[in-house]
Amino acid sequence: MNLHEYQGKEILNSFGVEIQRGMVATSPEEAVEAAKKLTEETGTGWHVIKAQVHAGGRGKGGGVKLAKSLDEVRDIAGQIIGMDLVTPQTPPEGKRVHQVLIAEDVYYPGDSEPEEYYMSVLLDRAKGKNMIMYSTEGGMDIEAVAEKTPHLIFTEEVDPAVGLLPFQARRVAFNLGLSGQAFKQMTKFVSALYKAYISSDASLFEINPVLKTSDDRVIAVDSKVTLDDNALYRHKDYAAMRDIREENPIEVEAKAVGLNYVDLDGNVGCMVNGAGLAMATMDLIKQAGGEPANFLDVGGTADAERVETAFNIILKDPNVKAILVNIFGGIVRCDRVAQGIVDAYKNMGSIDVPIIVRLQGTNADIAKELIDNSGLDVQSAVAFQEAADKVQAVLA
What we know:
Elements: H1 5-14, E1 22-25, H2 28-42, E2 47-51, E3 64-67, H3 70-80, E4 84-85, E5 95-96, E6 100-104, E7 115-124, E8 129-135, H4 142-148, E9 153-158, H5 166-175, H6 180-199, E10 202-212, E11 218-220, E12 224-227, H7 236-239, H8 249-256, E13 260-263, E14 268-272, H9 275-287, E15 294-297, H10 304-314, E16 322-329, H11 334-348, E17 355-361, H12 364-372, E18 378-381, H13 384-395
Parallel strand pairs: 14-16, 16-17, 17-18
Antiparallel strand pairs: 1-6, 2-3, 2-6, 4-5, 7-8, 7-10, 8-9, 10-11, 10-12, 13-15
Organism: Aureitalea marina
Family: Belongs to the succinate/malate CoA ligase beta subunit family.
Domain ATP-grasp fold succinyl-CoA synthetase-type: 2-210
């Protein structure tokens, strides 16, 4: 589950990470009131207005602006709230902005120049360890830094059984070229950040930039946080942070009825039981000259109601030109799935795209007979290649 910047900062702050303070507003009037309160609490004279959407690159799309007066706070908030923000990480039509973060200005003058760094904590699946990735090139696209100047990216591997050791936090600060008070603040920052990552069951904490202020404070100016959905039962307060307005509406609907669905950009809908078979089916579709329109795992049950729900969700995608149902009957009997498909088809009245059904496993022969004798526009297949050939034929 992805979080907004302000939500990620709330979690960071709860574990002792110093953050750029701010308040959320959903209207220009609320933005002005938030700015007044921030001025009272922090003494900040200028304010940063940040669009709150689940996407990076907001500044490039006009979603992050500096306001030097309350009038500018009102005007800029009015411009950003309600806009369709387009960034490199949004769909072409952009994402609607429903709220903004009014944040304090932390780039104030002092004894030294502010410096920006990049830092993230994530899992290195290949090594089975957590990893802190960091760079002196903060405030930039980390992908561009990795491509053009890979030597400026450092990593620190952390054994999850041992945790982050003090010398590792000090090494991060040393590699960033810090000394004195800034060095101490960075080691404290890194330790608190790693604690937040572990304790919140996150799969990603990314802060770009981490700022060393002109008076040697180290703070999180931004935050991109992804939490592990499978651990949300342990964090009811985090689960309540979910903003379904930022999610694909079809995926939200599928999740509400217990279907594992991921929307893709292809033209062949998939209905499969089991993640491994789903991945193989997607490969099959590509080999047949098509592109998978979705990942859809119906799980171990496939009665008429569940199959009908799955068909309805797949058909919400106007790009779907065919549907491939590929079920292995281990726990669930193939004839039960076949009857579910027939019943669902009849309940829906008509389906305007070709349907290819491959059922293998328990009672597969009975299932094929049910499909072939149904009188419906549904094609049955036995072998993987036969299913691929039929997909290719209907797309031709």
